[in-house]
Amino acid sequence: MKNKKPKFLRRGSHRDSKLGNGRKNKQRWKRPTGRDNKMREKRKGRPAVVSVGYKREKSNFGKIDDKEVIRIVNVRDLEKVSKNQAGLIAKIGNKKRLEILKKAKEMKIEIVNHNIDKKIKKITKEKK
């Protein structure tokens, strides 16, 4: 069984909302500093600190959930995606994104960075 990498959160993030408590986009790693910092000393029972031993296996580099990721810029790129691959929609506008998502749903292709049904609903709601 593979050991799963811990979620690295900065020291004290469980206390303050400005450090990420209940706010995913604020949960950023910062190395613990300070003379008496227990986390910096890697004491037992403290949260894990980023270090060399947590690196991914080489075979899994560039993959998400053991699937190779293909960048999608237009509808034609969906044809390149095979069974053991997943799509990742690039920086594009909502009009093109909506087309791609509808086609992906029709072709039963997994899109990594979107919940397809939710996103289609949101974009169509914004159009109205």
Task: Report on this structure.
- The protein is an alpha+beta fold and 128 residues long.
- It folds into two domains: 1-55, no CATH class; 59-127, no CATH class.
- It is built from two helices and three strands; from the N terminus they run βββαα.
- The protein has helices spanning 94-107, 116-127, and strands at residues 63-64, 67-72, 85-89.
- It has a three-stranded mixed β-sheet with strand order 1-2-3, with no helix packed on it.
- α1 (94-107) runs antiparallel to α2.
- The protein is elongated, with a radius of gyration of 20 Å.
- The model has no long low-confidence stretch (mean pLDDT 90).
The coarse silhouette is elongated
| Assembly state | single chain
Q: Helical amount among residues, as a percent range?
A: 10-25%
Structural class: alpha+beta
Radius of gyration: 20 Å
By DSSP (H or I, 4+ residues per run), the number of helices equals: 2
From the N-terminal CA to the C-terminal CA, the straight-line distance is 50 Å
Low-confidence stretches: none
Strand order of the largest sheet: 1-2-3
Instruction: Describe the sheet with the most strands.
Output: 3 strands, mixed
The string of secondary-structure elements, in order, is: EEEHH
When the domains are counted, the total is: 2
